[in-house]
Records
---
Amino acid sequence: MNSLGDTLWTRTLGERWADEHFNAVRQTSDGGFIAAGYWQPQDIYKWLVRLDENGDTLWTRHLDRGSAQAVTVTEDGGYVVGGLGPIGSGYYLGMRIQKVSSAGDSLWARTYGSRSYDWQAYDAQQTADGGFMLVGLEYPTSTAVIGILKTDAEGDSLWSMTFSTTHGQANSVARTASGAYVVAGTALTQTQSGQIWLAKIGYEQIPSMAPSFIASPASFGLSAYPNPFNPATEITFSLPTAGPVTVKVFDILGQQISVLQNGLLTAGQHRVTFDGAHLPAGIYFLRLEAASHLTTLKLVLLK
């Protein structure tokens, strides 16, 4: 849909003889999408589909047995899939994290758990040190509790923690501007009524991890040099968190002139160039949109 909620295109994917579900989707750096779920002709297999910005399929991958509950775009342009996967050669499934290249080829996979549905991951986020944070649920007994697992860049476990609830699960994780993490989910109370559950995970709870994180900018920044310029200027902008970013140029009448950036970017400083050689001299406006943040900068083109 567009920014007003109007449908731009619709796609239906899958095969008539198989049971298929999508559980997660993320935008890629080129404006396309990566969708993850499962494909079940008889047994169940993780399903990954890469789409372009118009929703047309670029490639499809049926990975190993299990279900993909989460997918995240990594800094190298690949993907990490979180969900359920096989434990050893048996039928049991545990929490699975799998790294996939930009072409959809599996690079490595790790599974945690010792019995059926011991761990389940519902969201994944790449961390500042190149590792991954997975959140979901764990079954230490017959009751599920909220579980969080931190891995290194190769998917090997560094630490895990659980939160005691009557019954609960974590569904989403996001990195804050300060480098901490916010985890959201649901939990049952003593009366068995469901409530929203929210936690902020800071380094003080895991001090051994603190030195490994790389500092990110504390706030959004936007600048252009030179300004005034003729005919080009370098745009520099800083992002405290990763996410979808658009950088656009408008003329004084509010008409869009150029799109300099549209897609996912990592936290940190980024640069793009705006070339006004084909434009008349005058005042233009540069607009940065990232998450709920909006910044505008006036540009002056001299000729």
---
Amino acid sequence: MYAVVLLAAVSLPPRPNIISIVTDDQAPWSLGVYGNRESRTPHTDRLAAEGARFTNAFSVTPVCSPSRATFLTGRYGAEFGITDWIHPDEDAAGVGLPSGTVTWPLVLQKAGYVTGLIGKWHLGGKADNHPTRMGLTHFVGLLGGGGPTMNPTWEVDGKPTKLEGPASDLIVDHGLKFVERNKDRPFALLLHFREPHLPYTPMPAADTAPFRTLDPTLPPLPAGVDVNQLKKWTREYYGAVHAVDRNLGRLLARLKELGLADKTIVMLTSDHGYMIGHHGLHTKGNAMWVAGGVEGPRRPNMFDLSLRVPLIIRWPGVVEPGKVFHETVSNLDTFATVLGMLGVPIPAGVTQRGADVSPLLRGQTIPQREAFFGQYDLHNNGLAFMRMIRTSRYKLVRHLFTHDLDELYDIEADPGEMRNLYRSKDHAKTRDELEGKLGTWRQSIGDPLLTRGPSVPRVAR
């Protein structure tokens, strides 16, 4: 009798739920809480006001599939052979996360959480790469990368199913069903929107109407750019961003109605950043030059605009409302941080490249990050092999197997990354030091390009 009473007295409170929201191709500059006064994102802004916002959050790869692999595993995409977005031909050949890969949903599943992913996967469409092999009990959505904004065909109950309605609404429709079904047990829900990825339209009138007459502010532009085209893209982009925000409002309202708001961590981020006219480019790490209203050749890049992501975390009772963090974090930290927030240990022997930054959310300090690294091997519609190191002051980007494309920027003096200092004699010492650190990092992760040279996945066509 005494032992039973003692156990009841020391029983731990239930762990919080977590809802992780990942948008696709969303830059921080598209959100009101990050300073945009033309986009309309009241629910995202409120989420930040009730939680914490990070100003220096990054992805380590500027395109979706490798970024998503990193987000789920705390490791670099190159470690899984995922170095660019997974092309349908690669998908058919079995490129993707290997079966049994340790993801943070898998660790949570084994710790007693019911787990689900609604929306975009894009980490392999074969049975061995399926989300349910990676710790996700429930999956509804798109295994590949593309998909229309309206009336998509998704996998539902294991079968391709034609759905009716906006994709953004459908994600939250199914997400709410998951929450309602599991409201009495610990759950981890991943909502992976396809918005605001191209194509930006069609979108519901509720999302496009606020921008119909907007004359949007554009970044500084090079000569020859079609300003009207960029403004049109920006208005459409804001409409897609609004669709996510509107549905975030639906989700937050339902959590409150169910009495789950104070029991649920809500984390919002994107897979990478984005550009509409910035640097004269359109999209992300595989961006295209824009001139005269026409998208031209690719400009492979690892600009901050392609890597910087929004990161907002509402953790009731723990995170100070309205808190702003300027520490550098990346999606490499997600695995350890999610488990740290939920009090679930990282399993022994599991490789982790990131750090647990949850102490920061609890009001504690974390070690200062000297640098973070990035990688991207473009092989769809172009060819590039890039490795990056970024400190608080400098960024070095090596374009491997090429000549005269390497980049070095003094981010403190030149935050827009407009002046390449790689050949500057005044910065030669800095360049050489960064190249040494970059080489050491490449060795530490077993960068495949150190041993096999430039290559792309071989698939049948």
